[in-house]
């Protein structure tokens, strides 16, 4: 094997971009909370961008390597060290057999992404290596990592060309208030004008009810016209449900495939990198944008990834 789990951390799972195409059968997409960070981690260690990674939440794991390889870290800074020496986020590093990677404590954000050159030896399920915890599907035995687990590498390498320049400036910067851009709908017409203005002008607080399925916010109630219930329909990543209580819930990677609450808006995909790093007591505001603006933000993100990949000779 190639990795031994000494301690598993708070929640460490194998994730990739998720298993698309199965929501009609009730199977959630799952996948990473921050696709951009995952792609950057893979670019850093010379992998295909869609390769599976470990998603580490708040308190990261302690991992002992039993084979040489190249790893990369992106996302939040959870205080990674290699044999006690600090590792900066958004960098690639050569690790040797016998070395131990640990995460000391969160410094910024709450989710770090750990990629391994050549990928993890995890069998795909429905075309994806992502873990869906509630159904015990995919990933490592369908669950989060536990003490004593052993994971293998598929195609490790002791180093890669120009390893010392495989670095980015960390992208996640803590803020007093995080502004998430949204597209209104699909049921924004179910809310009063006062409710819409409340949603767009108030500041909300992230509650401890925050997992890979959804993020419940606390703050001013958003007024409906005629109640919160609708005939169940599909739910996208970033959809913002507003139940009868009037307080919003942002649906995330492990969201259910359908739901029966009105959805006032959807966080644009370019802002998932902020959404994924929120933690309890963080402050959030919403800013309405147009469809062309959301598309421009997505194109800008894709262009930036191409530039990063080109810079490393890919």
Describe this structure in words.
With 314 residues, the chain is of the alpha+beta class. It has four helices and 20 strands. The chain has helices spanning 35-44, 193-201, 272-275, 291-311; strands spanning 3-7, 11-15, 53-57, 62-65, 69-77, 80-82, 85-86, 91-95, 100-103, 108-116, 150-151, 177-184, 204-210, 214-218, 229-234, 239-241, 249-251, 258-261, 263-267, 283-288. A seven-stranded mixed β-barrel has the order 12-19-16-17-14-13-20. Helix 1 (35-44) runs parallel beside helix 4. The mean pLDDT is 95.
Q: What is this entry, summarized?
A:
The protein is of the alpha+beta class. The protein has helices at 35-44, 193-201, 272-275, 291-311; strands at residues 3-7, 11-15, 53-57, 62-65, 69-77, 80-82, 85-86, 91-95, 100-103, 108-116, 150-151, 177-184, 204-210, 214-218, 229-234, 239-241, 249-251, 258-261, 263-267, 283-288.
How do the strands and helices of this protein lay out in sequence?
Layout: E1 3-7, E2 11-15, H1 35-44, E3 53-57, E4 62-65, E5 69-77, E6 80-82, E7 85-86, E8 91-95, E9 100-103, E10 108-116, E11 150-151, E12 177-184, H2 193-201, E13 204-210, E14 214-218, E15 229-234, E16 239-241, E17 249-251, E18 258-261, E19 263-267, H3 272-275, E20 283-288, H4 291-311
Parallel strand pairs: 12-20
Antiparallel strand pairs: 1-4, 1-11, 2-3, 3-10, 4-9, 5-8, 5-10, 6-7, 6-9, 12-19, 13-14, 13-20, 14-17, 15-18, 16-17, 16-19
Helix pairs in contact: 1-4
Structural class: alpha+beta
Helices and strands, in order, run as EEHEEEEEEEEEEHEEEEEEEHEH
Overall shape? globular
**pLDDT under 50 segments (min length 5)?**
none
- Total helix count? 4
The helical percent reads: 10-25%
Through-space gap between termini: 29 Å
Largest sheet: 7 strands, mixed, barrel
- Strand proportion, as a percent range, falls in 25-35%
By DSSP, the count of extended strands is 20
Mean pLDDT value: 95
Radius of gyration: 20 Å
Order of neighbouring strands in the sheet with most strands = 12-19-16-17-14-13-20
């Amino acid at each position: 094997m190639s990795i031994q789990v000494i301690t598993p951390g708070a929640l460490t799972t194998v994730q990739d971009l998720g298993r698309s195409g199965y929501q009609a059968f009730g199977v959630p997409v799952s996948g990473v909370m921050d696709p951009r960070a995952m792609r950057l981690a893979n670019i850093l260690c010379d992998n295909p961008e869609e390769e599976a990674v470990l998603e580490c939440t708040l308190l990261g794991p302690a991992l002992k390597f039993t084979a040489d390889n190249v790893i990369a870290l992106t996302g939040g800074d959870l205080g990674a060290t290699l044999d006690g020496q600090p590792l900066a986020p958004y960098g690639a590093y050569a690790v040797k057999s016998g070395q131990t990677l640990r995460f000391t404590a969160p410094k910024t954000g709450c989710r770090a992404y750990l990629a391994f050159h050549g990928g993890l030896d995890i069998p795909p399920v429905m075309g994806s290596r992502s873990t869906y915890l509630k159904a015990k599907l995919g990933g490592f035995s369908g669950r989060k990592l536990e003490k004593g687990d052993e994971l293998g590498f598929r195609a490790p390498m002791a180093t890669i060309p120009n390893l010392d320049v495989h670095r980015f400036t960390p992208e996640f910067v803590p803020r007093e208030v995080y502004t998430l851009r949204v597209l209104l709908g699909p049921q924004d017409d179910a809310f009063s004008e006062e409710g819409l203005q409340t949603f767009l002008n108030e500041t909300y607080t992230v509650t401890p009810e925050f997992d890979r399925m959804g993020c419940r916010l606390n703050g001013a109630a958003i007024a409906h016209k005629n109640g919160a219930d609708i005939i169940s329909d599909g739910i996208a990543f970033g959809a913002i449900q507003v139940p009868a209580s009037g307080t919003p819930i942002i649906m995330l990677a492990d969201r259910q495939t359908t739901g029966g609450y009105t959805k006032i808006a959807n966080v644009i995909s370019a802002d998932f990198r902020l959404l994924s790093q929120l933690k309890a007591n963080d402050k959030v505001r919403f800013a309405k944008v147009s469809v062309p603006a959301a598309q421009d933000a997505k194109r800008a993100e894709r262009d930036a990834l191409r530039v990063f990949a080109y810079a490393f000779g890919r």
